[in-house]
Design goal:
It is a single chain. The chain is mainly beta. The chain has one domain: Beta Barrel (OB fold (Dihydrolipoamide Acetyltransferase, E2P)), CATH 2.40.50. Helix content is 10%, strand content 39%. The chain has a five-stranded antiparallel β-sheet, with no helix packed on it. A four-stranded mixed β-sheet has the order 3-1-2-6, with helices on one face. It is globular and about 50 Å long.
């Protein structure tokens, strides 16, 4: 058992590189290069996983096929953020929604460009192609579809 006297204080440099993994890389590359959403397909279970993964959570099959997902989904839940991750007041509220897509198992969480309600149909708006960097932030926001 470690005693309080063994505690070391100070800053420790940590060097690491986060990778999105095989499925995440394919997902982010499709957003960056083509401005579209893709899901990993399990033929055995007839499921499209969004975000993609490399194994089916039901049958554990390796997932190597990717399919394009329709760009419109339904808001399942949402929140309005008034503070940042450090608890500081934001200049204006930020709306965040979890969106399910009809042909996919799972969904995406991202900003909206205005207020939304549960059940609203929204579509994904991507940044202009030359502004994309290969990040989830290449999705600019979800916008309501009339």
């Amino acid at each position: 058992m470690m005693s309080d006297s063994a505690k070391i204080e100070g800053d420790f440099p940590v060097h690491f590189r986060y990778t999105a993994g095989i499925a995440g890389e394919k997902f982010l590359r499709e957003i960056k290069d083509n401005g579209r959403l893709v899901a990993a397909r399990c033929d055995s279970c007839q499921l499209n996983y969004l975000p993609p993964r490399i194994y089916c959570e039901r049958c554990m099959s390796k997932l190597e096929e990717y399919v394009q997902i329709e760009n419109a989904g339904i808001v399942q839940f949402y929140t309005i953020c008034t503070q940042d991750s450090e608890g500081k007041q934001l200049p204006e509220p930020v709306n965040i929604a979890f969106v399910r897509f009809p042909s996919a198992h799972g969904g995406l969480i991202h900003r909206t460009n205005g207020e939304v309600c549960v059940g609203d149909k929204v579509r994904t708006v991507f940044k202009p192609k030359l502004s994309r960097t290969g990040s989830i932030l290449d999705i600019e926001y979800f916008e309501k579809v009339p």
